[in-house]
Specification:
With about 90 residues, the protein is α+β, with helices and mostly antiparallel strands. It has a domain of about 45 residues: Rubrerythrin, domain 2 (Single Sheet), CATH 2.20.28. The longest helix is centred in the first third of the chain and has 11 residues.
Length: about 90
């Protein structure tokens, strides 16, 4: 039996994993007490100054977070993977 796309899409959406509201971890630096810290912050609030957990100061700065990927890209602009090999088998 063939199903219309509407019926198929409705059935598919009921069986896939529910979406999570992801809240990323951002790194911040407090120049008042020279402390670096991480904090779970909603994307819309990521650039706002966060309270320092050490001194309570509001002069915090969001740091540039670096992350690694593995896989197909071997260009000079790709971040280095800590796993080595760039996703290729040796």
């Amino acid at each position: 039996m063939l199903y219309s796309p509407t019926v198929y899409n409705r059935a598919w959406s009921q069986h896939r994993a529910p979406r999570r509201n992801s809240v990323p971890i951002y790194e911040y630096y407090c120049p008042d007490c020279d402390v670096e810290f991480e904090k779970l912050v909603r994307l819309a609030e990521a650039n706002a100054a966060q309270d320092c957990p050490e001194c309570g100061g509001r002069h915090t700065q969001k740091k540039l977070s670096v992350f690694a990927t593995s896989g197909g890209s071997t260009g000079t602009g790709a971040a280095a993977s800590s796993c080595g090999g760039g996703g290729r088998f040796s």
